[in-house]
Design brief:
Layout (H helix, E strand, L loop, with lengths): L2 H6 L3 E4 L38 E8 L5 E7 L6 E4 L2 E4 L1 E4 L8 E6 L7 E3 L2 E3 L8 E5 L6 E4 L2 E4 L10 H10 L4 E4 L26 H9 L3 H4 L4 E3 L11 H8 L15 E5 L2 E5 L8 H7 L7 E5 L32 E4 L5 E5 L8 E4 L16 E6 L2 E6 L3 E8 L2 E8 L4 E8 L7 E6 L11 H5 L2
Parallel strand pairs: 10-13, 13-14, 16-17, 17-18, 18-20
Antiparallel strand pairs: 1-21, 2-3, 3-7, 4-5, 4-8, 6-7, 8-9, 10-23, 11-12, 15-16, 19-20, 19-22, 21-22, 23-24, 24-25, 25-26
């Protein structure tokens, strides 16, 4: 049990329903490869652009609120975009390589862009004041060798790896903006010979692996709204870092993979969002010190690793990161969005000046074991901490209201399981009030580690 769970255990109030040896022999996975775009779903996922060779097309937001159109194509040349009424050539971000045998194209959209079209697909442009935001994270299918044991999620079964269902349900909510809080890529170890749960899964930091883990199952979500992407620890250079910079990072392509990127601000509506690279926990404090409060502006932070909730990140080396003095005044930060821990955990810190921290790390990968066996829903009350936790799969929506946001935790089908009200105002600590719903009272999924006897 992690320090996160041990710290919570004495305070839990529960709601809801009162190894054999692993064969590590591997194979040449391509010898029994299925269509990478079909893994994790019953049908291949095809770009709605209908442009030959295009595997995915979307828009994302980058530093200083730049809007970037990004396209992945099997062809060696980039397609044309129709901006407003004129045709514009996209730029090559990354040429085809043996590991990434696709061409990645991009174009920073001019500020006067009113429409962007690729073939039959209309790319979504950011709204000046988004009314609905989808938040999700930790979405890939875990195939990893750790401490001599293979952690193996059934990547071919949507009941045990439901990211495609989560993504499709999130897209169906018609968001104006999407925030993915990191950990896109989990296929690190080879599938054992003959294992039906991961047969066809391609491992390693390659286009085929990234396509299986994110771009195919998440395609409809990518096509639903502009996305803000946050780097997770699975996107460090020793893991999925090359794919991160080749496919997703909104900044110019670096000459080589780097483990620490500087933070940046972008704006949505009347809010500023600080995007922080916390893939490497040693980069957190230096990043915190690089960003300064913007007066008279509601500010959210988005980073992969939680740092305010006690014990939430039990992988840090050294002391946990803390807010710099200039960020400690109540209301300087309105909200912190994170993932990393594989559960939903919404945390308020009464009696302090700290903002609420929302952990949405339940988008598809291995879940944490529930503190109370057989129960998905827990609440925590202790001095300086009030939390609601849900050990099941899903995503969150934030809907704009007159004095803040309606925060709704949703299950894989998009059904609300927890309703929260986020009340924020300049110069005051944000208040988070959550009410679990009957739909949250379900047993958690079978934990893969229990299944494997690890």
């Amino acid at each position: 049990m992690s320090r996160f769970l041990r710290a919570y255990a004495p305070f839990i109030v529960a709601f809801g329903f009162a190894c054999k040896q692993t064969n590590h022999e591997t194979q040449n996975l391509k010898s029994e490869q299925v269509d990478p775009s079909a893994v994790g779903g019953s049908n291949p996922r095809v770009s709605s652009s209908a442009v030959p060779g295009v595997k995915a097309a979307w828009t994302e937001l980058g530093p200083n609120s730049t809007v970037i159109a990004r396209v992945i194509t099997e062809l060696s040349t980039c397609p044309q975009l129709i901006l407003n009424s004129g045709s514009v050539s996209m730029n090559v971000r990354a040429k085809s390589t043996p590991a990434f045998a696709v061409t990645v194209c991009e174009l920073t959209l001019p500020s006067d862009t009113t429409s962007a079209v690729l073939g039959t697909q209309r790319l979504h442009l950011p709204k000046s004041n988004p009314q609905r935001i989808v938040v999700l994270g930790d979405t890939g299918c875990r195939i990893k060798e750790e401490k001599g044991a293979l952690q193996l999620q059934d990547c071919n079964n949507q009941a045990t790896w439901p990211f495609q269902q989560v993504a499709d349900s999130a897209a169906a909510t018609a968001p104006d903006l999407i925030i993915h809080v990191g950990d896109f890529h989990y296929r690190e170890a080879n599938c054992p010979v003959g294992n039906q749960e991961c047969i066809g899964a391609i491992s390693g930091d390659t286009w085929e692996s990234w396509q299986q883990d994110f771009f195919a199952p998440g395609l409809r979500l990518l096509e639903a709204a502009p996305i803000i992407v946050i780097r997770g620890n699975h996107e460090l250079c020793a893991r999925g870092g090359n794919g991160w910079f080749t496919l997703l990072d909104p900044r110019p392509m670096p000459a080589a993979c780097i483990d620490s990127s500087p933070p940046y601000f972008l704006q949505f509506g009347d809010h500023q969002l600080a995007v922080i690279d916390a893939a490497d926990d040693q980069n957190m404090v230096p990043s915190f010190n690089q960003i300064k409060p913007i007066p008279s502006t509601l500010t959210w932070w988005a980073l992969h690793r939680p740092f305010l909730t006690p014990g939430a990140d039990d992988e840090v080396t050294g002391a946990p990161a803390k807010l710099p003095p200039e960020w400690q005044t109540a209301g300087t930060i309105s909200l912190v969005l994170t993932g990393h821990k594989h559960l939903l955990s919404y945390n308020q810190f009464p009696g302090t000046s700290q903002p609420p921290e929302l952990i949405n790390g339940h988008g598809g990968t291995y879940l944490e074991k529930p503190t109370v066996k057989g129960q998905s829903l827990n609440t925590v009350t202790q001095p300086g901490l009030q939390s609601v936790e849900w050990y099941n799969y899903g995503f969150a929506t934030l809907d704009r209201q007159s004095e803040g946001w309606a925060l709704t935790a949703r299950n894989v089908n998009g059904t609300p399981v927890i309703n929260c009200k986020v009340t924020e105002a300049l110069g005051t600590q944000t208040n988070l009030a959550c009410t679990p719903l009957d739909a949250a009272n379900v047993p958690p999924p079978q934990h893969p580690k229990e299944k494997l006897g690890l």
